[in-house]
Amino acid sequence: MDSTKTDHLLALKVMRLTKPSFATFDSVTLDKRDFAYHLTDVASSNMSCIGSLQDFSTSEVLTLPQNFGSIFLGETFSCYVSIHNDSNQSVNTLIVSAVLQTGNSNQKLTLSNNSSSPHPELTPGSSLDDVINHEVKELGFHILICTVSYVPQQPGEKLQFRKFFKFQVLRPLDVKTKFKNAENSDDVYVEAQIQNITTYTMYIERVIFEPSNLYKIQDYNKIDSYQSTFGKLSYLNPMETRQYLYCLTACRPSSRDVIPIGKLDICWKTNLGERGHLQTSQLTRMAPGYGDLRISIDSIPDIVSVEEPFYIKCCIMNCSEDSMNLMSYFTDQYSIRWSGISGRSIGSVSSGASIIATFSLLALESGFQSISGLRIYDVIRKRTYEQDDIAHIFVNPD
Known about the structure:
The protein is mainly beta. Helix content is about 0%, strand content about 55%. It is built from one helix and 31 strands. The protein has one helix at about 40-45; strands spanning about 10-15, 20-25, 60-65, 70, 75-85, 90-100, 110-115, 120, 125-135, 140-150, 160-170, 175-180, 190-195, 200-210, 215-220, 235, 240-250, 260-270, 275-280, 285, 295-300, 305, 310-320, 325-330, 335-340, 345-350, 355-365, 365-370, 375-380, 385, 390-395. Strands 4, 6, 7, 8, 10 and 11 form a six-stranded mixed β-sheet that branches. Strand 10 and strand 11 form a beta hairpin. It is elongated, with a radius of gyration of 35 Å. It starts with 9 loop residues before the first strand and ends with a strand.
């Protein structure tokens, strides 16, 4: 709260409107055997303690903020602006404007201005009040500039004064995203890590991934359509991190190098129900570079046995602009051997087309093994494409 200088007829007072907080105090515990226990009644001397809980440092008394303090990104900044006539004469043509200057961009946003219809008269002892609300969308220091202009009856010249109120906008959440391409499809897995970097506990109301028009989404953070995997009461303690997982399936192929994925929309509440809302900027990812030739697994067994042949089917796609005449060669690995004929012709594949090729393999070691060592040779270009880590398979020792 602040007021103007005494050389003006009007007083400007601005107070931020926010939820109260529970008062805290330093509790002093005394044992009944102590001499001071019989001289001092701690519970009666401290009005803020909760009943007989003298040892509990948080009281049941609520306190209001004493200054503008700090506000977190995504919260709504609310303040109460009051113009009071402290003089013994009326003032005319009262104009009040409130402008918010943001931190990094120095952009000025007009939150309130009655210059188009000035208040005609403010009599002695009366006030003109207004409540301003603004959702904060930028970090850094902000300055609220309140300007008051009026015309006193004597001497009748227009007077003006201005007050500045500075506050800082902090970041409440640290959001990190990771992308992982599926091995056997064009699906993209998005992992979102959300960390509470404030000093108080948050109630996470909702976390929604809004995909772009290029993708459709599958949410893996719900047990069913109603219950979340984090339970009914989704609290996030200070410095605690929570992970969310989404699967995105492409609706249609895209020729862009940078593909827009979507946005994360997060809503939360603080201890006493003050709401916050944060939406990330458009998340993007680089289109995977497959080169001229792309190989994906069409079918593969879940489990195979040692020294027993098994078959896999590979989809070989020609991503170049020219046709290809392909042949397959093998480079044996110690754990898994190729048991087919090396140098076999696969066939001709036109630009943008694909072909299914079946290969026979033999596992020599148990465990989780990688399938590598496939070489695809293009007879027309005389170029060899090395394909390693095509897939992984579990080999049973029995």
